[in-house]
Amino acid sequence: MIRDGAHRPTALRTKAFSAPTGHALFALLRGNAAERPVVDPGLAGGLREWLEDELGPVADELGPLHLPFLVDRRALNVSEFDDRPEPRSTLGQPVGSVPLVHNALVECLFRQIVTEGRIDQPYQDAMDGLLATGQSDLVRFVKALTPDEQSDLQSAVNLQGGILQEQWLEIPSTWLPRTKDWVSIPVAGGRIILSGVLDLVLGAASTGRASVCLVDVKSSQRRPEDPFDRHLLAVLETLRSGASPFRLATYYSATGEIDVEEVTEDLLAGTVAQIIERTRARGASLRTNSEHP
Amino acid sequence: VIGTSLSPLALPKSGALTDCLLEPAGPGPSYDERVAVRTRVVHGIAAVVGSARNPAPITLDGFHLRRSLLGPAPGDVDEPFAWNARRARRQLGLRAARACAEGRARSLAQGVTEAIEELVSAARVGRQKRGSLGYWLATVPNGARAMVAAEALTWATHVFEALQWRRFSPPAVIGPPDRWWNCPGATNVALRARSDVLALSVESHPKEVPGLQVLSTELFEPGPRRVHLEILPGRPASTYRSELGLIALVDVLAHPSHPAPARVVGWWPQSGRAHVFSIDRRVLESTANAVLGAIDTVCSPLSDRLADRSVLSDRPPAAA
Known about the structure:
By secondary structure, chain A is of the alpha/beta class. Chain A has helices at 22-30, 41-62, 73-76, 80-83, 98-116, 122-132, 136-143, 147-167, 226-241, 265-291, and strands at 15-17, 69-71, 178-187, 192-202, 213-218, 247-252, 258-262. In chain A, strands 1, 2, 3, 4, 5, 6 and 7 form a seven-stranded mixed sheet that branches. The longest helix of chain A is centred in the C-terminal third of the chain and has 27 residues, at 265-291. Helix content of chain B is 46%, strand content 11%. The chains are: A alpha/beta, B alpha/beta.
């Protein structure tokens, strides 16, 4: 039943909301505790077995040169934007790109508003945050921008900082809010690593009912791949904790919009099918590139 | 590394991990076995370090042990240590989780805020050394401190959600002091082990331990025994046995007359994996081998470098 790849995630359960604020936003994320589904403890094990069975041969074919093979949203993404190579440092040149640094700065502000409930000076706080999180490459990149480029970046970051402050109150501590929670799931004997970062997790670990809501934060415009990105995070969280989350959200910090979606077994199964399909395709592409560089 | 000691059906995982820690202890290494391991380590270190002229101080901890066994990770750079949010998260996260478990903080967020404020206050009145976390925190602006708090809060949540704290009697100790052992006869070598949670297993009796009837009851050291939980980032590396065994080995080296810890549990919350080790003679011996190998790796190039330097210093300055 789980392995029926015909179960594809659909957009039918997704609801889009235009810039909800404060408690209305929180209500979308936490919903009604009594309505959350009971966890099927066998589901996570079934999904993991499926991945093990299908990704083992992919790892066998890849060969040691490409192992361990990191499978994250970037590796699985089929959109043109994400196929662009990572900016690389050459001979001491600053590394980065404006979208990359903009995203990193907004990420700092989002973490700050969730953790402290306030932002004093968005751009300055975010730049200080970048340094504290060890992203000095990006700070150097910003400092190497022209004054006009820096001014544009500052305006864009301040704008999103303002939106964050309008929408987000201090999150109740009983929801155990945590930000930038890394997930790393080894499969196929550790030769393939499924990996992702949960921008915001709300809720304590499950004790029988699904209890966690995941929020994926996007500082850019909407993209067709956004639903898959959050579905991937749901699979990772299910594999890690043994219990699926009950709700997913994609928050767009440029507009304040939020897409909210319930997690179902079909959604998770369909996403695992896509992970397998895309990992195979990416593996085949790597092999082809190795054989015909 | 694959596998986990927890059943995927065991929910919540905090209950299963607590069960692992509290389980009655089996027979551990005997006093003679503990002394034998200690003697072997002392002699082994003396042999390795003795060959190096003017050896530099060596402190071997889990990180250096892993690095020695695996080689540097991609991106590892030998730069002087500098604090950042990630490096601060464990210390602050443990303080926050402890404050919450002891009822001194109403929430983890409050625990993190207070942990930062305590360290900053101590630094401002000169009670923090230069280079310490408090000293650094006192110098960074608000935006940076917010990221430190965010990172610490995420880690504190992993710590606090790891176990069912009320089941421990006496209460488990969150963030006990690091354990140190200075090698007698090679005072430049120290082993350092960290434990995130120290607790006592349920008291066990010989009749409760299967297979113990065939052993002399004199070998059985009754009473609850220490158990350690180490909470680690990422996923288990292939060296995890040695990394976890280091806690038990340092305990035994420092106090060979005390019973060894009953077990060490490694918990990787980011991958949902756990590994449980009952401590016996074989675990101590294999960890001791890994430690001696790591010290040998550190000392060999060092002795070569020192030898080269001494040769150079005997030479007259090269002509310009």
